[in-house]
Batch of 4 targets.
Target 1
Amino acid sequence: MTTERAQELQSAITKEALALMVIHGDYVCTATETDDIHVSHFEKVVKLVGEVWGLSEKVTTANLTMLDQERDVVRKLSAGEDVEHIMPENELPMNATGMETLDNIWGLFETAVAVDDQEQRTALLNLAQELAECQNLLDWIEKSPAEKELPEIAVS
């Protein structure tokens, strides 16, 4: 993966986390980390992408700082304060396209292949699965005529 693509992936994962906080509020910051959706999963991956692809600490820190700033915003909002999110919703992947989601998932897979640590690889692959679910990836996939004839399969 090129440095430019790694920076794009890191930025995209950061924006996905920001969108998650805008949509779900403080819950995704305060829930236990074992819950399906938690901002810490995104933070861990932002760090991993930076480490694996040799991105500068400055770039990674800037992304993590944005997450910290939005975390403060959602806490204030849940406390009843009137504050603005750090980024307008129209700049966030509130409903990413299938191609945007696939690009992010593919980048996470590519990163997972580049790490030897099973815990790190699992974190990357789990986030890929979370993105596919959160962004309704299957809704973007058009079935062929033959596939439309097959019975529906439950996805877990």
Target 2
Amino acid sequence: MENQNNFADQFSVQEVIRLSNSPAGRQLIDLLRRQDSSSFQSAMKSACAGQYQDAKQIIEKLLSDPEAQKLLKQLRG
């Protein structure tokens, strides 16, 4: 399995917004919400509070799912 840490570190805020609006990005967000909505909400709250390391740790756990990995590959192009 690829290391998803590099994925998050590669993108600016504008790129994250663009990717989240793409079909694969929307599918990934949907998947993360379905997997564990309370963890996803916790990650979003942490990010909004400026606790990016906490948010990143939560999201990294969610991204370890094989379906999430497939969508990440699509986002990478």
Target 3
Amino acid sequence: MTAAKIIDKAILLLGYDTLKNTGSISGFEQSALTALNTVYADVFYLCNKEGFQEITDASQPVNMPENVVFDIMPYGVAAFLASSQGDSDNQLFFSRIYNLKRKNILKEMTFEDKIPTV
């Protein structure tokens, strides 16, 4: 999925049009891209140790597992976009959803406890 599609899904979740409180599309798009990169970095390092590359263009694909891209990232982007728009009710609502969904990434990882042999 591309960055633009994640941003579009977040905007749809919020019920915004792209001009809400900004006066220009480019200002809103920059805020959206910043929000996306913040969330992308957050979930990237939950799944990987290194290799993060920031998204510089909304047409770029987001290389994360499908469940992260479709089910987690739009809620985080929505939370950060709401915050940038001064929409505290939506920011709180989507932050809670995002954090609950983000916890599932850690649950899916398996940790193996081994006692060393001597």
Target 4
Amino acid sequence: MNYLDFIISKTVRKHLKEIGYQPSALETAWLVWQCKNATLQQKHDAWHEIIATTEDCPIPAGDWCGTSPSLHRHLERHMMVEARMMKDFYNNDASRGIYSYALCFEEKDFDWQDDDCLFSDFEACWQAATEKFDLGVRAVRVQKRILNEAISSVWVDFLPSREVVAVSTENDAAFADNLIDEWLDGLHLPIPTPFEKGDILIPAARKAGPHSSFEEICVFDGFKDGCAYGYFTNENGDLCYEQIIHPLNHELFQGTLAAGEKVLYLFSRYLRGEISLMEFLDAKKLSF
């Protein structure tokens, strides 16, 4: 299995393949975990292969958790809990829960739009959701509220093909010791990227073209203490220095910047040394 395929960004994936980068077991598990395009089955298959073919290793301390002595044990626990949640989700005993759904449309990025209907079983809920697929549905989130159980609510994200891409629970506290999300989410792994200071980046999941999605497109500054940072714009056109979440899932921006984001192009030229600070400030005044 080529674990670099779990990187959404074609630019980053190509770069790592060209330099012959071989991720460690921990980096591989993290790459699989963070991939939003992979199905749940693909992730479980990859984690089973990691357990079977790599030497176990500890998980170092991150932003949210301390160290853990065994990556393999955490992966096994995580898959066990997700399997448990899926079993409860598909149990159609009407006395135990009700279903509802929300849709994510292509033009709305990842803004979920809830439907107000409630259903006594999953199939009826799914059928109602499919009736809106011709409107350009990217994903379907089905939630089941479970009565009198340790897991009070489970929601599952599906592709229109009905493949599962994620499962989660409202009652995370009961399973925090078994889920690996917090352990991996707070890690800052030194996986190289081809990005240089001044590059304009956009999340790979977004479409190229005119944008008005503030705090997504940014000018790359570099890495500090394992974290990537860059300059974003807010709704007023002001620059904000923030951490770039998952830089491995970004592409070089090739589209047309919206009016409020054109300052990023000017600042990119400044960071690259193409214009001076005074030239940047003068050009910014003329642009707004």
